[in-house]
Amino acid sequence: MSIADKIIAGEIRAVARLIRDIDDMVPEAREVLKDLYPFTGRAYIVGITGAPGVGKSTLVDQMVTHLRKAEKTVGVLAVDPTSPFSGGAILGDRVRMQRHSMDEGVFIRSMATRGYFGGLTQSTKSAIDVLDAMGKDYILVETVGVGQDEIDIVRSADTTLIVLIPGMGDDIQALKAGILEVGDIFVINKADREGADRTISDLRLMIEMDEKRYENGWKPPILTAQAVFDKGIREILDEVEKHATYLRSSTERQSGIKYEKVRNELAEMIKDKVVHDILSDLIQSGEFEEAVQLVLQRKLDPYTACDNIISKRLKRGTK
Amino acid sequence: MNQKRKIRVLVAKPGLDGHDRGARIIARAYRDGGFEVVYSGLHQTPEEIVQAAIQEDVDMIGLSSLAGAHMYLFPRVVELLKEKGADDIMVCGGGIFPEEDIPQLKKAGIKEIFTPGTPLAEAVKWVKENVEPRT
Amino acid sequence: MFAKETLQRIEADNKKWQELFQESVSKAPERLERFSTVSDRLVKNLYTPLDTKDLDYAQDIGFPGQYPYTRGVQPSMYRGRLWTMRMFAGLGSARDTNRRFHLLVNEGQTGLSVAFDMPTLMGYDTDSPKSRGECGRCGVAIDTLKDMEILFEGLPIERITTSMTINPPAAVLWAMYIVMAEKRGISRRVIGGTIQNDMLKEFIAQKTFMCPPKPSMRIIADTVEFGTKEVPRWNPISISGYHIREAGSTAVQELAFTLADGIAYVEAALERGLDVDSFAPRLSFFFNSHLDFFEEIAKFRAAKRMWARIMKERFQAKDQRSMWLRFHTQTAGCSLTAQQPYNNVIRTALEALAAVLGGTQSLHTNSLDEVLALPTEEAATIALRTQQIIAEESGVAHTIDPLGGSFYVERLTKDMEEEAFEYIRKIDEMGGMVAAIEKNYPQMEIADAAYNYQKQIDSREKTVVGVNKYITEEELPVETLQIEAELEEKQIQWTNQLKNSRDSRKTKEALEKLGEAAQGDDNLMYPILKAVKEYATEQEICDVFRDVFGIYRDPGVY
Questions:
Q1: Predicted TM-score (pTM) of this structure
Q2: Interface membership of C477 toward B (CB under 8 Å)
Q3: Residue A117 gets which letter from DSSP?
Q4: Right CATH number for A37-249 from 3.40.50.10540, 2.60.200.40, 3.40.50.300, 3.20.20.480?
Q5: Does residue A318 register a pLDDT over 50?
C-alpha cells in the first residue's frame, strides 16, 4: 500500500507521520500530498481563534463531544507558538481534549508555529488536506489569533469562530486591525464573568459600523458560551450549520468564494515555494552568507545585494 | 534551507498521581532545549498515553511518576506501543523509584530512568544524544 | 522597640561597622556573589535594632497566648505539653497499616496520621480500571467501612487523635471513621482528629481532584456545618500549604495562598449562615518546613499573626480561639535527595527544629528513604526519634519562642507578612481564591517559582549536597519497603466478597437517597453516613458525586 492509500484508509500512524514530514519540510511529503489532493474537499473546516486564555481548547473539546454525538468524525489541529528563543514549544492544548484520545473517530494533532520563512500557513493547510483525505467530516483548526499567519490559517476555513471573553475592551479595538473581518461567528466565552454585556454591545457596535460589508450577506452572530460547563456549544454548532447553508445557498457565491480561496492559496503556495527553494539553495551554496557579509562590511547596499541575487536566481529558474 | 527534523516529545503523567511539578519543569526544560513538547495532562491511562503519542508522532515519551505505580504503568506503555507497532517510540521515566526497580524497568523496555537530582541540562543533553528524530 | 536616642546611636555605629565590613571584604571577598534564601530572598550581612524599628512589641509581637499570637497560640506552649508527634503512615492493606500504627504508638508516637493510596485519594475502588497498579503503593487501600474497621483495630481512638490526609472523598472517609468509632461504642462527640478536606490547594498544587471547584466547596461547607454541630472535637479542614510548597512555591507564596484558601473557606461557611465563632476555632492549618531555617521560622510566626489579624479585622471574630492558627507541620519531602540518602536524616532534623522554633502544634518528620519508596519500619523509627531528641534532649522547648526578638527573624517575619498580604490583596481583586484558581493565577506563580529554583540548582547558585556538590560515586545501599505484588488481587477479592454479603437493596437505596440530597441543598453528611453504614464502597459514593456534580479535569497550564 502506498502512503497515500494508507492515509485514505485512515491509518493513524501514516497520517501522523505525513503531518510530521510536512512540518519538517521533507520533499517527499509533497508528492504524497499531490496523490491525496483528489480525495480532499469533503471535510467541513472550522477555524477557531482568539487570544491566549479565552478557552479555545475547552471550546474545541466540547464541540468535538457534540459532533461525535451527531456521529460525525472529527480532526483537530491545535497550533501553539514556538519559542523564538529556543525554537522549542510546549503544546498543551491537547490536555483539554485528551478525553477524546481513545475515540477512533477523533484525530488530534498539536502543531507548533515554528515561525521562520512563513512555513506555518502552508504546513497547516497541508495538514488539513491530510485529515480531509483520511475522511474526517469536520476539521477544527485552533490558533492563537495574534499574527498574520494565524489569520491566514483561519481564512482558509469554511467558517471562522472568533473567541473572546468579557472585559477585553481594548482588545476588541485591536481586533479591528485584522481579525474582525475574518470572523463569521463571534463567541463570548466565560460569559458568566462580569462585563459580558459590555463586550457584546461593543462588538455589536463594531459589526454594525461595518454594515456595508454585511449587506445582502452573512451578518456575524454574537453568541455567549461557558465552555467549561458545556453551555452554548449546541448553539455555536447550529450557527456553524447555518453559515454552511448560507455558503451553499447561492452557487454564484459559492463559486466566488471557492475561486478566491484557490487563487489565494495558490499564490501563497508559489510564494512559499519560491522563498523556500531559493533561500535554501542560497544558504547551502554559501551565497547568502557572502551577501550578508558584504552588506555587513558596508561594501554593498542590501538593495543591490537582493537585486543581484534575484536576477541571477530567476534566470536560472527559467531555464 | 532543509531544516533539521525537530525532536518531538510527549510528557505524560500515567496513573492517578497528581504531582506534576517534575513533569511541568521538564516540559519547560525540553522547550528551552529546542524540542516540541506535547503535554498530555494528568491522570492518564497507558492506553490514552500511547494513543496520544501515535497521533502526535513523537520520538519519545517521558513518563513521570511519584506514587509508586510505575512497575505496572511504565511497562504497560511499552507493551501497548509494541501492540500498535509503534515500538520505535522511545520510552523514558522520571520520578521516585526504589533502586531495585530500575534494572527491572529497563529490562521491560524503558530506555532510561531519571531520578530526583538530575540536572535539567543533563536531561536535555541526554535526549539530544540519544533520540534521533525518526525518518 | 528602642528609644529614639538609642536608635540614633546604633545608626551611627552601624554606619561605622558597615565601613569596617566593606574594608574587610575588600581584602578577602565574600564567599558568595549573592546571599539568598531557598525562596530567593536577599539576606543582608547583619541585622540590628534598626531593622525592627517599625515594629511595636505589644501590637506586632506580644506574649504567647495573646493577640496577635506571634509568639504562640497557647500561653504555656511546650512548657505545658509538647507538640503531637504524628507520623504520616499508610502502606498496603488496612491490616499492614494497622501493624505499623501499633509499632509507632508503642515507640511513643502521640497521634495517628493516615496516608491513603492513590485510588482511595481519588475516590476509586481498587477494582476500577483507573486503579490498575496503584493499590497500596503510596498508602493504604480503603474501599469500605470494613477496611476502616481493620485499620484502627486495637488502637485507642477514644484518647488518641487521628489525622486523615484525604481531600475529594474526605466526607466519605470521615463518615467511615465516625461509623467505625460508633460501632465500637465511642460517641462522635468524643473522637478527635482532622480531615484534610482542602480542595482549593488540590486545584492549585496537588491535583487530586474529582468535582469542579464550586460543588467541591459545597461538600466542604457541609462537612464544616456537620462537624460544628455533631463532632465538636474534630477539625473538618486542614488548610494546607504543604503541597503548595512541594509543588515548588516560595515560602511567601505558601503563606499567602494558604491563608487566602482559609479566607475562602471562612466565607463559604459564613454564607451558610454559620456564626464565625461557631466554626473558626476548628479550622486547622498544615505547613511545610523547608530547609531555609530562619525563613521557615519567620513564615510560621507570620502565619500566626496574619491569621489572627484576618479573623479579627476581616471577619470580626470575637472568640480568641477563632484567631488561633493551630498548625501541623511536615518536613519538606521535596528537599530530600535520592543521592546519599542518609543525609536526609540531617535535613529532616533541621527542618523539624525550624517547625518547633516556629511553634507547631504537631509534626511529621520524613524518613530518610521516602525519596525512594514508602518508609521501612527502621527509617520511620529514626524519623520519630529525631523529634524525641529535639523535644527532650536539645532544650529548645524549654522556653517559649526563643527566637522572638531576633533582629533577623523579626524583620523576616514582618517582610513576609507584608508580601503575603500583597498577594492576598491581588487575589481579593480577582474575586477571591476560586476565581483566581479559575484564572490559573496561583498555579502559574508556583510553576514559575519551581522552574527558577531548579535552574538555580542546575547553575549551582544553590547547593544541594550530594547532588550538585560533594558528589560521591559509591552510594551506601538503602533497603526499601516492598509492597506485595498480589495485594491488588487480594483487595479486589476481599471487597467483592463484602459486596456479595451486604444487603444490596439497602445499599442501593442509601445511594439513591444520597443522589437526591446532592441535587438539593441538604447537608450531605447524613446520607453519606447512611450509605457507609450499608457498606457502600468509596467509589459507589463518589460516583454519585461525579454523576451529579460533574468531573473536574486538569486545565493543563505549565
A1: 0.88
A2: yes
A3: G
A4: 3.40.50.300
A5: no
